[in-house]
């Protein structure tokens, strides 16, 4: 049997422990007390009173069953203060550099935790061998463990919470060492090249080369050394710049070498960001995560003059309100038992809502009419006649000589249903500024146009309208004169009467027919009719026939045509006119 601290108990110790527990339960021994002097109930089960092994053994207590400081929310400022307090305690230690102690962490050298519990970056050579950079024994505050209370919303999402800027100095130092090593290696390569050049020079001199040539090669080697040393930093700087420009070019969306020149001008834009429209910190809140600003940053401006009025303004434009009303109608209908879904069948919801509104208006009108019929208030409810609206009233109004109201209330001007002082389609006057008395219609005074959506034509439109009116007047006069002449001629003809029989039957205007051609046309028409009656499918396709219809063909067609409404049509072809 193991204890709370993890130590193994012998049988006698375990037996003695059980006897003490039984005595406390029976009341012969006083119960245990914790560090604060509170009594611990001996009848508590073991799984409640026993302290977990990972919390350590600090005597009898029930604190492990309670949440410590959970009701308090730590803000960003309070959490930073806790971290800074721990760092100040660690920085106060002065004196000679500490050495590694037995039992301390082999990685960082701190005695407050073991090697397996160390949270620092594993070192290549531990502190127990190097005795360098021994960390302080004080445990740095870990606010995220919630030992000091729950973190607030902002503190929990602060990515720099607990960050020590001094730790960045180690990173800078490490990169400086890498840079020094790189420069040292570069200098070694340059020296190696110079040694090779000197060896080549000596070899040429031994072979009996020219002295002037040797001097020139020496000067060339010196210039090479100076150029290599001078361009050392530029080489690496240019190399890093090329990599950076390529990386930004790929992120730009287009990619390629054409994007390298636009790295510096990547954020130059014509529009203004939302959070720059009002720099007052108490204005509308901008959420950088969603890039949204719901409220109006400039509520004091006129809505017609403001360019941006917040994201909430867009939510109430278009069909948003109509969709919201349909959704609320669907919820109310579903609550009353109707199985409808606005997402699955929106047309059904719209139709049902339309029917519901029509029935609602109808019921309201019926209810109103019932109340009027019951209490008899039709005569008071009806509006007075128009001739009495502008009659004399009891309201006293006194005017001055220039027409201003001195006493009383001025009569309100009647507002037009059209927008005032709005010039449309290049017109210089409003609609209704001119009235055409000849046609009794309203129009524009600038061009005398009576079409509401017409484009302004100016003075030319007025001239064209006058010309059209004069032409219409002339046509009306001509038509009137022709009607008078026709009526007089008809009266003369009626008085004279029809003198000849041919005039009555129209023989005087009938065309002259050739007897031979007429017989030929009759035979042709009868033959075509017979072929069509026998077999319509065997009839030839005469689309290429380009013969015109003459007077004989037309006469043959009229002679052979049968009319269903003719009472004598059934007797054609028979000699008997009447039944015997």
From TrEMBL:
Main function: Involved in pre-mRNA splicing.
Species assigned in the record: Lagenidium giganteum
Oligomeric form and interacting partners: Associated with the spliceosome.
A GO biological-process term: mRNA splicing, via spliceosome
Residue ranges of coiled coil: none
Residue ranges with Polar residues bias: 476-490
Source organism, top-level taxon: Eukaryota
Keywords: mRNA processing, mRNA splicing, Nucleus, Spliceosome
Basic and acidic residues biased stretches: 13-25, 177-198, 491-504, 528-538
Molecular function as annotated in GO: pre-mRNA 3'-splice site binding
Organism classification: Eukaryota, Sar, Stramenopiles, Oomycota, Peronosporomycetes
Predominant place of localization: nucleus
Biased composition (Acidic residues): 221-235
Family: Belongs to the SLU7 family.
Name this protein carries in UniProt: Pre-mRNA-splicing factor SLU7
Positions of region (Disordered): 1-61, 88-115, 177-242, 280-300, 476-504, 521-548
Domain Pre-mRNA-splicing factor SLU7: 152-433
Record localization: Nucleus
One cellular-component annotation, GO: spliceosomal complex
Keyword Nucleus among record annotations: yes
Pfam families in the cross-refs: Slu7 (PF11708)
